[in-house]
Design brief:
There is one protein chain. 30% of the residues lie in helices and 22% in strands. By secondary structure, the protein is an alpha+beta fold. It has 2 domains: 140 residues, Glutaredoxin; 44 residues, Antioxidant, Horf6, Chain A, domain2 (Antioxidant, Horf6, Chain A, domain 2), CATH 3.30.1020. α4 links the parallel β4 and β5. α2 packs across α4. It starts with 12 loop residues before the first strand and ends with a strand.
Length: 219
């Protein structure tokens, strides 16, 4: 069964390029991004892993840990990292899970439960559904799921934007509108009554319709 928003992210133990981890313990009190790849030495994924390494300081500033996953063994990841550094200018500076037994991919619904055999016998096309981004909160709940085709590189700047929204709305009773960027106006959450809103926003709000209450972003 596919994972859904609000569910607890499945816990697991796995070998990574930075040693063995238990996922929930590794997350700790942080936020986390798990992003997956169908196979090592694939061109689009090479660009993605390099880009993530370059913008890792942006995730660090937000208290977000990054972990990759690819359906190949960890020792192959290490060789791939050399190519990533040579071609993208940044070597992965975060752990990459080795999922040669498909265990994590199955656990997260990216491969069918009946997937079997040797990872080395499978092509990237066989694993094309392993192209997900999961954003997980400190409560270990899944906050965002994105699934990309193999031919479209992921937009990790958008992942950062969503994390900014998730962290803002986790701390304030607001929602962010379409195309929102940090610093833009926000919308008072529908769960907040007008009387409650007046306590937080005594100067009022812009309301083109009764159900739309626009206020400056809380600081």
């Amino acid at each position: 069964m596919a994972l859904q928003l609000g569910q607890t992210a499945p816990d697991f133990e796995a070998e990574t390029t930075e040693g063995r981890i238990r996922f929930h313990d590794w997350i700790g009190d942080s936020w986390a991004v798990l992003f997956s790849h169908p196979k090592d030495f694939t061109p689009v994924c090479t660009t993605e892993l390099g880009y993530m390494a370059g913008i890792k300081p942006e995730f660090d500033k937000r208290g977000v840990k990054i972990v990759g996953l690819s359906v190949d063994p960890v020792d192959k990841h290490a060789k791939w990292a050399e190519d990533i550094a040579d071609t993208q200018g940044h070597e992965p500076n975060y752990p990459i899970i080795g999922d040669a037994d498909f265990r994590v991919s199955k656990l997260y619904g990216m491969l069918g439960a009946d997937t079997s055999g040797e990872a080395s016998d499978r092509t990237a096309a066989d694993n094309q559904t392993v192209r997900n981004v999961f954003v997980i909160g400190p409560d270990k709940k899944i906050k965002l799921i994105l699934v990309y085709p193999m031919t479209t590189g992921r937009n990790f700047d958008e992942v950062l934007r969503v994390i900014d929204s998730l962290q803002l709305t986790a701390n304030h009773k607001v929602a962010t509108p379409a195309q929102w960027q940090p610093g833009d106006d926000v919308i008072i959450a529908g769960s907040v009554s007008d009387d409650e809103a007046k306590e937080t926003y005594p100067e009022g709000w812009e309301s083109p319709r009764p159900y739309i209450r626009i206020v400056p972003q809380p600081r």
